Amino acid sequence: MNRLDSMFIFVTVADAGSLSAAARRLGMPLATVSRKVAELETHLKTRLLHRTTRQLSLTEAGSAYLVACRRILEDIGEAERAATGEYSAPKGELTVTAPVVFGRLHVVPVIAEFLAHYPLITVNLMLTDRVVHLMEEHGDIAVRIGELPDSSLMATRVGTVRRVVCASPAYLSQRGEPMHPADLAGHDCITFEVLESKRAWVFGAGRSQVSVPVQSRLTVNTAEAAIDASALGVGLIRVLSYQVAEAVRHDALRVVLASYESAPLPVSLVHTGQAPLPLKLRAFLDFVAPRLRARMSRLLGETGPV
What is the mean pLDDT of each run of 10 residues along the chain (306 residues)? Predict the structure, then answer.
């Protein structure tokens, strides 16, 4: 039995939540995955997993062993990176994830600069509006917008963005400007579920938070489509400030209800915090963080708080 292989398979099973899901993730037959875990349990003379027809869970011994396996596998990865010289020069591949629009507008230009400065580093950039689990999906660093849950991830804050309500000048001229969130009852709205509910928009924070029903005349699945429709006079939208910065700058859209906005959302660079930090990741953080902060500051000067 190759114990390291078995450890890796066991960790994958624990992360995936089932033997079949782990088999798909590893590209192995289910029987092989099951046999490897069974061999590991036989070797250790203890059960690592509770198996039922509906779910799989760790035993007490399995939970402790999982922590040890992660540490051992991470130590081996660190030793391999040191042996290949990754800690002596910034080189290798980085997997980076970011929200779609923010990534296109702000991350891509900064990464282009980064690649010009570090010719031995390659970047795999994944733009998606879902939260990517860095450990499970083998990501190195993520751009996250919003409050971060307590976790073992390390975060570097690079700015903030706001949720803003906008409409075209033509729409506001025809229908009037809402002066209070309650006024939205008399307006047409454009919604998309990526940011919040199609049926209500939430304003304020804490005890002053209020949920306001909206009349959705058009529902779309991307912020870009909502912004385009709003610029055509279809109705009000609620999006993130960076998504409409250019439209606001060119007066295609105007921000309304600014005094009722929720608290700004932080923008952070997060990573797993492995130690020592690979030089390619340190180089990326040192290069990208100040440039993203500068871009956020420029938006602040051009369009108000972002």
Answer: 87 86 88 92 91 79 88 80 69 91 94 95 91 77 85 84 94 95 94 70 80 90 91 95 91 94 90 78 94 86 52
How many C-beta atoms lie closer than 10 Å to residue 301's C-beta? 8
Report the DSSP pairing between strands 141-145 and 154-161: unpaired
State the pairing for strand pair 265-271/141-145.
antiparallel
Q: Count Cα atoms within 13 angstroms, Cβ side, for 12.
A: 23
- Token readout for 233 is 């006079």
Residue found under tokens 């991350």: 107
> Rounded to 5, what percent of the chain is helix, strand, coil?
45, 25, 30
Return the axis-axis angle of helices 108-117 and 279-303, rounded to nearest 10°. 140
Distance CA 65, CA 299 (A): 48
The verdict on pTM exceeding 0.85 is: no
First to last CA, the chain: 56
CA 160 vs CA 126, 244, 246, 305: distances in Å: 21, 15, 17, 8
Q: What is the Cα–Cα distance from 170 to 288, expressed in whole angstroms?
A: 39
Residue 41 and residue 213: Cα distance in Å, rounded?
55
